[in-house]
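User: Working on a comparison across species. This one is Ribosomal protein S18 acetylase RimI-like enzyme from Crossiella cryophila. Can you predict its structure so I can line it up against the others?
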Amino acid sequence: MHTQSISFGRLASEAWPGLHTREVDGWLVRTAGGVTNRANSVLAEQSPTDLEAALTEVERHYARLGQPSVFQVGPDSRPTNLDEVLAARGYRIVTPVHGQTAPIPTALAALGEQTRHPVVTDHPTETWLDLHWAESGRTDPAGRFITHQILTAVPAGYANLNDQALARGALVRDWVGIFGMWVDPAARGQGLARAVLAGLLHWAADRGATHAFLQVMEQNTVAQRLYASAGFSTVSRYHYRVLDQP
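Assistant: Here's the predicted structure for Ribosomal protein S18 acetylase RimI-like enzyme from Crossiella cryophila:
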C-alpha cells in the first residue's frame, strides 16, 4: 500500500462501516443488524490487555444481539496468534478474501479506452438499489434499510451500465474502494465489468483519489483474472472466524 498510516482492514472498514461500533480493550466491535460479515465483526488490530476478558465480552456482546461472534482475521490482527486462539474456541473459517490495490493511473492504462460508459451518481438510485438487493439476496425490509444506511454512510459513486452491470466506489482518504461489482448473468463475457470499473476509477480520480482497493473472494477466479488484468495486485489476505450462537 502507498501509505503506512492505515491497514487494509481499517481502510475497508471505513469504506463499508458498521452502523454501530464500540471498543473492547483496543478491538473495534462492529454491528449492523447482521448485514454482511464486515459490518458485523471485530477488527482486532491491537493486542488487548486481557485477552480472555476481551473475548468473553465480545461473545457476550453479539449474544445479546442474537448474532454469531465474528472476527476478521488477517496479517494485522492482534495478538498475532489470534487465529489459533479462535480456532481453539470453536470458531470456524468462512470467506477467505484477497485484498488488492492499484494506483488509479496504472489501472486505467491497463483497462484501456472503453466504448461503453456507466452512469455514475453520487447517491444510489432506486433502480441501482433494486439490482443490488436482488443480487445480494437481501429482500426483507429491515435488511434493505440497513444496507442502504451502510452504502450511504460515506461519500460514494454508484455506477450503472444499462441495468446490466453495477458497482459502488467509496471514497476514503485518497482511496476509492470498489464494492458490489455485479454483472447480469445474461450479459457476462462482454467486458461490462471492465467498463464499470473504468467508469468508477475516472469518477474517483476526478474527486482526488489516487489509489483503488477492492476485495475479492479466494474462490472467485474469474474476478481475480479481471482485476489482475486491470493492474491490481494482492497486498493482504484475510478471512472471518465465526462462532455460532448455541
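For your comparison, note: The CA atoms of residues 73 and 238 lie 5 Å apart.

User: Helpful, thanks.
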